[in-house]
Write a structure and sequence with these properties.
Layout lengths: L7 E6 L5 E7 L10 E4 L12 H7 L4 E5 L17 H15 L4 E6 L1 H12 L4 E7 L7 H10 L9 H12 L8 H11 E3 L5 E3 L7 H6 L9 H8 L4 E6 L7 H10 L4 E5 L11 H12 L3
Parallel strand pairs: 3-4, 3-5, 5-6, 6-9, 9-10
Antiparallel strand pairs: 1-2, 2-4, 7-8
């Protein structure tokens, strides 16, 4: 049993034999509810949900915040071409199978939302509801190009102040209200200090290999069939950062027309992607989840 806000480390095995990791937050008291599986973005890890996951757990839902293969405490893949949404989705299904979870609420930030859509295409019955955080079945080319420009690129970090400066350079436009303490906390989520003291990004640099291999095609993915399958007859919430360069207003509007019953929340003053600790994001998530009970 874990104390409120704490988590247990859970390991599971991917279909191709990788050892994978998730933070497992035990639910608070009350009637059993479908758990939440939280999936992070391209260069991030389970620590991104460190603020919202304990709140979800306290509301009575078990939360599994995963480290997608190649990130955090999950194994790096010998074949970098397995760093793709369909493979990630099958990894999540393996977690559900090994944990005895038949259906869950999927909460996907950025790439995590793409994985959620892939899950809907592979095993739609596994998804009780879905929350897509600042991502859609197509993305704005400028946003993806910005991310592709730094993902997997080497960076020299001397100390934690260098790490904070790096995350501010790469994410400053999205969080203009952040101060030094926020950037230090951000850096400690996405960097890891090795036993020898070296501070390194907490992901396999080869995660960007499929993006590089796809070239220009990587900038215009068409996942509309996946999205329509996800949002059809299934509670869905779309969260958008008001200044996001990845999920444009036009794409969000197109999604809302394709899924008129989908709930929607726009988070003011934030770009790609909301951290979900914003008051407006938390309110939208808890209102959405309350409607499922």
């Amino acid at each position: 049993m874990t104390a409120p806000g704490n988590f247990a480390d859970r390991r599971w095995t991917s279909p191709d034999g990788l050892g994978l990791h998730a933070r497992d937050y035990a639910p608070g008291p009350g009637a059993a509810k479908p758990p939440v599986i939280a999936i992070h973005g391209l260069t991030r890890n389970s620590a991104d949900f460190g603020a919202v996951a304990p709140l979800l757990a306290q509301s009575g839902r078990r939360v599994l915040a995963v480290d997608v293969r190649g990130r955090g405490l999950s194994d790096r893949a010998p074949d970098p071409m397995t760093y793709t949404p369909d493979v990630y989705a099958r990894d999540v299904l393996a977690l559900m199978d090994q944990a005895g979870i038949e259906r869950a609420v999927l909460l996907g930030t950025s790439m995590g939302g793409l994985i959620t859509m892939a899950l809907a295409a592979i095993r739609p019955r596994a998804i009780a509801a879905a929350i897509l955080n600042d991502v859609g079945p197509e993305v704005a080319a400028e946003g993806l190009a910005r991310i592709a420009a730094y993902a997997g690129q080497p960076v020299e970090i001397g100390d934690w102040s260098d790490a904070a400066a790096y995350v501010q350079r790469t994410n400053g436009a999205a969080f203009p209200h952040y101060g030094p303490a926020d950037w230090d906390a951000f850096a400690r989520r996405v960097f890891r200090q090795q036993p020898d003291g070296e501070i390194v990004l907490d992901y396999d640099p080869d995660i960007s290999a499929p993006i590089r291999a796809a070239g220009a095609k990587a900038l215009v993915p068409n996942l509309w069939p996946w999205f329509r399958r996800l949002a059809k007859k299934r509670p869905t919430l779309l969260i958008r950062g008001a200044t996001s360069d990845l999920l444009s207003p036009a794409i969000a509007e197109k999604m809302r027309k394709a899924a008129p019953d989908m709930a929607f929340a726009e988070i003011p003053g934030v770009g790609h992607a909301p951290m979900l600790d914003e008051p407006e994001a938390k309110a939208a998530i808890f209102e959405f989840l309350a409607g499922l009970d």
